[in-house]
Amino acid sequence: MKNDQLIIAGKAYSSRLLVGTGKYKDFDETRAAIEASGAEIVTVAIRRTNIGQEPGQPSLLDYLPPSKYTLLPNTAGCYTAEDAVRTLRLARELLDGHDLVKLEVLGDAQTLFPDMPQTLAAAETLVKDGFKVMVYCADDPIQAKRLEEIGCVAVMPLASLIGSGMGILNPWNLRLIIDNAKVPVLVDAGVGTASDAAIAMELGCDGVLMNTAIAGARNPVLMAGAMKKAVEAGREAFLAGRMPKKLYTASPSSPTGGMIA
């Protein structure tokens, strides 16, 4: 739908699917999968991916040029606000002043659950420093609203643990966040297959960000195409408005008036 665009920090995007660039077997597979996904925003883990900080080594930018994609540097692997802020300041230098970033501050290496006090502290510093912050957070409506009030341009609650593929475990909290937000809400983490992405969009999420669900599939390029379709179908279903559920009540598909006796 041409007029139904995702607006992030004042910029319009046709695709509501955001994808990561890690865990692929090589940069060729990364490029093929991302092209199949139709994504326009791609996340880059600054601590794990070369975008120029390692001269002489293959650079992701040779395969996913900033002229074609909006790069979203992220702080994967950071466990303190200080490390996250330092990482994104480095990214801004490497990308010639690029200010749209994804913040994540992890609580522990086992669950990769967000450390919300550290996330809030980092978000406040980054916003004051001129960054446009999209932020990975717990599915906590109060914390999500606080991040919005700090000035984050999008909040990104997890559906379930990063890389778990468990899908959306708490749709009720996501709805609370969506209903109270004045900035885009995107599900980030936990999507395992196309139906998970469709459910997120049917709930009213503005978009979905995923990496492992595509990169970890047996056929990442085919899965990327499936995710593209799922996000589009879920969005259209949300806009269409589903029929009401009728507990213990059946309703025939065809009109009953004028039935032949």
Summarize the structure.
The protein is of the alpha/beta class. It has helices at residues 27-37, 81-94, 116-128, 141-150, 171-180, 194-203, 212-215, 220-240; strands at residues 6-8, 11-13, 17-20, 41-45, 70-74, 100-103, 132-137, 154-157, 186-188, 207-210.
Helix percent band? 25-40%
Radius of gyration: 20 Å
Structural class: alpha/beta
Number of strands: 10
Unreliable stretches: none
Tell me, rounded to a whole number, the average pLDDT.
Answer: 90
Proportion of strand residues:
15-25%
Strand line-up across the major sheet: 5-4-3-10-9
Shape: globular
Report the span from N to C terminus.
Answer: 45 Å
Q: What would you call the quaternary organization?
A: single chain
What are the secondary-structure elements, in order, as H or E?
EEEHEEHEHEHEHEHEHH
Explain what this protein looks like in three dimensions.
- This protein has 261 residues and is an alpha/beta fold.
- Helix content is 36%, strand content 16%.
- It has eight helices and ten strands.
- The strands form three sheets. Strands 5-4-3-10-9 form a five-stranded parallel sheet.
- A hairpin with a 2-residue loop joins β1 and β2.
- α1 packs parallel to α8 and α6 packs parallel to α8.
- The longest helix has 21 residues.
- The radius of gyration is 20 Å and the shape is globular.
- The model has no long low-confidence stretch (mean pLDDT 90).
